[in-house]
């Protein structure tokens, strides 16, 4: 990527020292994957919450299955409604519904006491995908800043050690 033209007189760095690049890019990829997953989770789970509220599913008698709701992202919601997932814990199942039934056929409703918590937890913001794009750009700028500044800081450290050692 960049030519490594740095030479340090007072300490040595192994010749194959590309681990800083790998570490910084690995952190960038990991953070971006986390942000993407979080955004997708909030957007699709919010669609489920809004679908239940629009359908009036706030009591066991008015519960709705996922397959009957007219919302997008059912492919993701089937995964998010599995046992032990946060969305499944936020919602309640109607009486007589077997928990081993496929997630698309289980009757769910949003109890009134959990409505506020669900709306706050799954609030993606005004423009979630624009925020995702901006976070990606800002993190990319931070990556290039770190990749540029660390060798410069090592040069400054080398100069300081040389000054203290030789008094020049």
Structure description:
The protein is mainly alpha-helical and 168 residues long. Helix content is 58%, strand content 4%. It contains five helices and three strands. The protein has a three-stranded antiparallel beta sheet with strand order 1-3-2. The longest helix has 39 residues, at 128-166. The model has no long low-confidence stretch (mean pLDDT 84).
Question: Brief description of this entry?
Answer:
The chain is mostly helical and 168 residues long. The protein is 58% helix and 4% strand.
Secondary structure elements and pairings:
Elements (H helix, E strand, L loop, with lengths): L18 H36 L9 E2 L8 H7 L5 H5 L1 E2 L13 E3 L2 H10 L6 H39 L2
Antiparallel strand pairs: 1-3, 2-3
Number of helices: 5
Instruction: Write the element-wise H/E pattern from the N-terminal end onward.
Output: HEHHEEHH
Number of strands: 3
Shape field: rod-shaped
Secondary structure category? mainly alpha
Percent helix range: 55-70%
Write down the overall mean pLDDT: 84
Distance between the termini: 34 Å
Largest sheet: 3 strands, antiparallel
**Adjacency order of strands in the biggest sheet:** 1-3-2
- Low confidence ranges: none
* Rg (C-alpha, Å): 26 Å
Strand content: under 5%
Salient structural properties:
168 residues, mainly alpha, three-stranded antiparallel beta sheet, 5 helices
